[in-house]
Amino acid sequence: MSIIDWSPAYTVNNAALDAQHQEIFSIINELHSSLLSHDKRQDAFAVAIRELLEHARMHFADEERQMLAVNYPDLREHQAAHAELIRKALEIEKRPKETSESIGPELLGFLIIEWVVMHILVDDKKFAPYLKH
Ligand SMILES: [Fe+2]
Ligand SMILES: [Fe+2]
Q1: Measured in angstroms, how far is the CA atom of residue 7 from the centroid of ligand 2?
Q2: How far is the CA of 80 from the centre of ligand 1 (A)?
Q3: Ligand showing the shortest atom-to-Cα distance for residue 72
Q4: Of 12-21, 25-34, 70-79, the least confident
């Protein structure tokens, strides 16, 4: 059971970037299923954060390259938003191991609210008209 599904309404008018966004939804759904199963909380968190950081570094660089190519006027603000998402993910990753039971749900909330709802659906969506042919 997925907690969050990508919809064509979320498109940024670029197939590669849309596919990368869909990967974030997969990471969230995998983390959610692992948390529901209760047995591997620490592992689920570690796997999700590793996948997330690996994915984000590649995706953010790709997105910023596309923005530069079309002279996107909010590129600097967008780069700052990307840096802030990475900073928060690293901050969650560095929490002491004793608190790892609560990190999974916190990471899930951060990914759904700040990463998907506020970043992909608001900030990235503002870029979509610039990719329209
Ligand atoms: Fe994005
Ligand atoms: Fe972005």
Answers
A1: 17
A2: 13
A3: 2
A4: 25-34
